[in-house]
Design brief:
By secondary structure, this protein is of the alpha/beta class. 32% of the residues lie in helices and 30% in strands. It contains 8 helices and 11 strands. A 6-stranded mixed beta sheet has the order 2-3-1-4-11-5. Strands 8-7-9-6-10 form a 5-stranded mixed beta sheet. The radius of gyration is 19 Å and the shape is elongated. The two termini are 26 Å apart.
C-alpha cells in the first residue's frame, strides 16, 4: 500500500481529482465522512487527511509515503523530503505587501507574517534589517493598525489586500502544490511510486 498525507479542504479536493486522472481509486475521498484515515477499495492506497501545514511532518516521519504540500509550507518547514513533482494546483505567490511606502518607512522594517523562518531568510539574503512579527491570522490587519510596515504572506487574487487599501510590493516566490516523498519510502517502494509519478506527470500534461 502507498499512503498519502493529503491536505484538508479545497486543495485536497483538487489533489483527489488529479489522483483520479492518474488512475488512483479516490472513491473513499468522495464519501461524506468525518474519518481522517481512509483507504481505496482495492487496498492499494491509503489516505491521511491532515492540516496543510502538517503534511511535511507526516511524510518526513514515514507515517505517509507521499504527501501534497504547498511550496510555501515546504520552504517554511524545511523538512528532509524529496520533492518529486510540481502539481500545478493551488497556484499563488509569497509576496511582500503593504502600503506603497512600506519598504521605505524606516531603516528597520517591521514584517508581520506566519512564515517566520522564510521571512528571516529572505530579508537576511537581501542584506536588509527586519523585525519579524509572528502572526497566525488576519495578517493584512498588521500594517492597517500600524503593527508592521509590511506583511509577508501568500497572495492569490489580492482582493483582501485591495479591500484594506494594501498592494503587492514584491512577488518573492511562486507557490503551487508539490508532491513530496519520504526518502526511505522512495527507495523501498520505488517500483510502485515512480510509475505513479509518471502517470501524474501525464495527467498534468
Amino acid at each position: 500500500m502507498i499512503t498519502f498525507a493529503l491536505p484538508k479542504g479545497r486543495l485536497g479536493e483538487e489533489c483527489a481529482a488529479l489522483l483520479a486522472r492518474a488512475g488512483v481509486d479516490v472513491s473513499a475521498l468522495e464519501e461524506d465522512t468525518r474519518r481522517l484515515v481512509l483507504e481505496s477499495a482495492d487496498k492499494r492506497y491509503g489516505f491521511f487527511l491532515v492540516k496543510p501545514a502538517d503534511v511535511p511532518v507526516y511524510v518526513e516521519q514515514g507515517v505517509a509515503d507521499l504527501g501534497v504540500a504547498g511550496k510555501d509550507t515546504l520552504l517554511e518547514e524545511d523538512r528532509q523530503l524529496y520533492e518529486l513533482l510540481d502539481l500545478k494546483i493551488g497556484a499563488c505567490s509569497l509576496c511582500i505587501a503593504g502600503y506603497e511606502r512600506g519598504l521605505n518607512a524606516r531603516p528597520l522594517v517591521r514584517v508581520a507574517t506566519k512564515y517566520v523562518k522564510t521571512a528571516k531568510r529572505v530579508f537576511a539574503e537581501r542584506g536588509e534589517e527586519a523585525e519579524i512579527i509572528p502572526l497566525h491570522g488576519s495578517i493584512e490587519l498588521a500594517p492597517v493598525t500600524g503593527l508592521s510596515d509590511v506583511i509577508f504572506d501568500v497572495v492569490q487574487t489580492g482582493s483582501t489586500l485591495r479591500a484594506n487599501g494594501l498592494a503587492v510590493l514584491e512577488e518573492v516566490f511562486p507557490v503551487s502544490a508539490r508532491l513530496v516523498a519520504n526518502k526511505v519510502s522512495l527507495k523501498l517502494k520505488s517500483q510502485e511510486i515512480l510509475p505513479l509519478v509518471g502517470r501524474l506527470r501525464e495527467a498534468l500534461s
